[in-house]
Amino acid sequence: MRKLTAAVGTVLAVTATTLAVAPQAQAAEVHLQSHAWTAQENGRIHAVFNVLDDDVHPSDVSLRVRRKGADQVLTTLKLNGTESCPETGCWDSTFLSEPARLPGLGVYTVDVVVDEGQADERVDRDNSELDYGLDPQLTVAGDHPTDSWEHPVTVTGTLRAEDPDTHEIKPFPGASVSKDVPHGGTWERTDADGRFTDVPEFREATEVALTYSFHSARASLTVKRDRKDLKLAVDAPGGTITAPSGSTIPVRGRVTGTTDSGVDKPVSDMYMFADGRYTSSWTKADGSFSFTYGVGRNTSVTVMPGGTYHFNPAPRQVVKLRLVPTRFESLKAAVSKYRKVTFTGTLGVAEGSYPAGTTALVDMQHSADGRTWSTVGSFTARYGEAFSKSPSRTAPAGSGHWRLRIAAAAQSSASFRLGRKATLLVNDDVTPEPVRKGATLTAKGGLLQEYGSSWKSFAGQTVRVWFKASGSTAWKQLGTATTGNDGTFSRKFTARQDGTWQVRYTDTPSTHYADLGREDFVDVR
User: Fold this and answer.
1) If 0-12 CB within 10 Å is exposed, 13-18 middle and 19+ buried, where does residue 486 land?
2) Looking at residue 166, what DSSP letter applies?
3) What is the DSSP letter of 421?
């Protein structure tokens, strides 16, 4: 009979004549370099064991065979011819086991046991696999004569072998069938019916030669690919998109491909490129796509689908960009009494139009002197839609210059000089403290306003007195006071409970900023 050897790296199992139960003794779990594979000799299946560990002597080795995924040991195999190996070992030698007898065609698991039953017993679990079957037969076929976009080829293989005990020819389940292709090799595992499926990988080639093998069985086929044409249409009337300089525009279009019958059909799941860069956009089921493109000051954009190997080289379309300047429409800027600066307005264009959904990144900038500018915040504005935006930074004391700028277009809005006079609560206090419950408390202090480079009294202004009880987070207004000619104020209250007091000047004219006094805790006893 022919001797059947395993492919490199394939680990195979052995045979069994009786069912055994795995020993209960606790053995050391190890990982051995030594391993087994399957051989066919004189109509029987054996394990071949290759010694690759210096501390493993073949006479000390036994092979336990199990069904894959099960713990029950079906048989234990001994190695033949180990007496020829000296005590110093025989590294890289191979030894044939006694014939295996197992309950049916298929793939089994082999555990390698060293010094079985001894105190120093070692077990390499799942060391290898045993292919229990004789004279395998392998057939493969594609489900289409030619691989194409519309009908990609799937290769189906069938593995059959002779049962060593009944000599029936049956499907061989669970086998690792190797696949050799020009770019390397992989494995396919047969199912319960001895079948496997494989989708060929063509890469750039228009045909690929596939060879499948299992021990002595080999089957080959060549699959050819019929590449189709792609068509690209970008929504750009007249081949031109009008866009504001520095904006980000949506680019839309559709990708179709030619079918086997010669008609055009949408192509989905195809990624899109703009100027050679991936856009993170894929075509939808109807072939449509939409991605955003930062115009800057570019005068064109090259659009191209990523393509696949089912198609001829992907078409590209150069779309001209007609740049128009941005117009800041109805733009206003204001600063609140709490120093919050707010810009309101709309982005438009001085002429022409733009694609729906066009946006721009807008910087909010401040300058103390109107010459040197710094960006204090940014936002994305959609053309044609009103915006109201504020930077997180509040306005500094005094007046300053503020503007909007589209950096990608090097275009700025008109500047606004914003500012109010600062106010300052001074000597604000609540006395006496501590105080007895029911006694009188006095909230007092003074209010100043900015006057050139100095301060002066601010008369006739309303200040409000707020209180927050201990253990609470809620503030409550208890009363108001009016500043006198010297800017001072005073208001009496009854002490009722512990808490924090604060004087606030918030009733400001449009020319002044508000100010909040210190938080003053008063202990009521």
Assistant:
1) exposed
2) T
3) B
Residues of the chain with pLDDT under 50: 1-24
Class in CATH terms, 230-321: mainly beta
pLDDT tens digits, 378-395: 999 999 999 999 999 999
What does the block give as tokens for 37? 């594979």
Inter-residue contact 142 to 27 (CB < 8 Å): no
Residues in CB range of 194: below 8 A, 6 or more apart:
158, 159, 160, 170, 171, 172, 173, 175
Q: How far apart are CA 152 and CA 158, in angstroms?
A: 20
Indicate the pTM of the whole model. 0.64
Contact 141, 156 (CB under 8 A): yes
Q: What's domain 423-522's architecture?
A: Sandwich (2.60)
Residues 248, 254: contact at Cβ < 8 Å?
no
Q: Are 486 and 457 in contact (CB under 8 A)?
A: yes
10-52: per-residue pLDDT in tens? 333 333 334 444 444 578 999 999 999 999 999 999 999 999 9
Considering the four listed CATH numbers 3.20.20.370, 2.60.40.10, 3.40.50.1370, 3.90.1150.10, the one that applies to the domain covering 135-225 is 2.60.40.10
